[in-house]
Write a structure and sequence with these properties.
This protein is mostly helical and 73 residues long. It has three helices and no strands.
């Protein structure tokens, strides 16, 4: 279980960094690059949600934050 928590924390850090860069540069990206980057981020966040659901007790607030983040992209 500890490994899953460590992996989850690493994924959150990666997502945070990538989303920050994406939001800062999305107006400058060509449409194809924007769509591709958004899809990669969305899939990564969905995978992280799936991992979070495996942890007990389930971190519902984190899962809700990640779902909200997908909507903000």
């Amino acid at each position: 279980m500890d490994q899953k928590i460590q992996y989850l924390n690493q994924m959150i850090e990666i997502i945070d960094n990538k989303v920050t860069i994406f939001k800062k540069n999305k107006s400058k990206l060509p449409q194809a690059a924007y769509a591709a980057e958004k899809q990669v981020l969305t899939r990564t966040i969905q995978d992280t949600i799936q991992l979070a659901e495996e942890i007990k007790p389930v971190p519902f607030s984190l899962i809700n934050d990640l779902k909200s983040l997908i909507k903000q992209l």
